[in-house]
Amino acid sequence: MYLQSKNLHSRGLPLPEASKAMVMFHGQGGSSSGILDLADHLQVDAFALLAPEATAKSWYPNSFMAPIESNQADLDTGFALIRNLIAEIEQAGIAREAVYFLGFSQGACLLAEYLARHADLYGGAFLFSGGLIGKRIDRRNYQGDFKNMPLLIGCSNIDAHVPLHRVQDSSRVFTEMGAQVTERIYLDGPHSVIADEIELANKILRGE
């Protein structure tokens, strides 16, 4: 089970004691402890927070804008990890509607691609500086209905790693699939999680 993996770290409440859970994915070169530090700024008192750490701190080897085949083997591994974490959270008695996702950069891309391929009503998703994976977006890969799930996607308009058009195209796909999308594009912003994104995430976490 992944919860016994040395590559999975946690904060907050133990799963059996929590009423909600958040799965958090770091960016390339980042760490589980680094992404968990965001919890200091999020309203997650009742949450179990789970953050896996990628081998060599990278979820897949090539740019997320490369042909998806070049990353597929590692994406499959990441997707299996997410599925197993969701299963363990549900086995602990937490409803799928109380499961949230947060990712930054490469971690946001991994989560975006997984969620679009397995759309369902979760508590919400926060995608910071990321988008759907592949040289082109193939809408045929994505199925299901988010049933009005809140989804926040934010990025700089000049992000060196994430083209603006991919963020906007990803927002469009998520909207078409029934997500309640909040998109924020930050003029001349950095490749990082900024205060406004945290404020918007907290509004979703409060159910506003």
Write a structural description:
This protein has one domain: Rossmann fold (3-Layer(aba) Sandwich). A 7-stranded mixed sheet has the order 1-3-2-4-5-6-7, with helices on both faces. It contains 5 helices and 7 strands. Helix content is 29%, strand content 20%. The longest helix is centred in the middle third of the chain and has 20 residues. The N terminus is likely disordered. It is an alpha/beta fold and 208 residues long. β6, α4 and β7 form a beta-alpha-beta unit.
Topology:
Elements: E1 8-12, E2 20-25, H1 32-36, E3 47-52, H2 72-91, E4 99-104, H3 106-117, E5 124-128, E6 150-156, H4 164-176, E7 180-186, H5 195-205
Parallel strand pairs: 2-3, 2-4, 4-5, 5-6, 6-7
Antiparallel strand pairs: 1-3
Q: What's the CATH architecture name? A: 3-Layer(aba) Sandwich
Helix proportion range = 25-40%
Oligomer: single chain
Q: Gap between N and C termini, in Å?
A: 35 Å
Strand order of the largest sheet: 1-3-2-4-5-6-7
Average pLDDT metric: 94
Count structural domains: 1
Please tell me how large the radius of gyration is. Answer: 15 Å
Biggest sheet character:
7 strands, mixed
| Principal-axis shape | globular
Describe what is shown at a glance.
The protein has 208 residues and is of the alpha/beta class. It has helices at residues 32-36, 72-91, 106-117, 164-176, 195-205, and strands at 8-12, 20-25, 47-52, 99-104, 124-128, 150-156, 180-186. Helices cover 29% and strands 20% of the residues.
Write a concise keyword list for the protein shown above.
single chain; 208 residues; alpha/beta; Rossmann fold; seven-stranded mixed sheet; 7 strands; globular; disordered N terminus
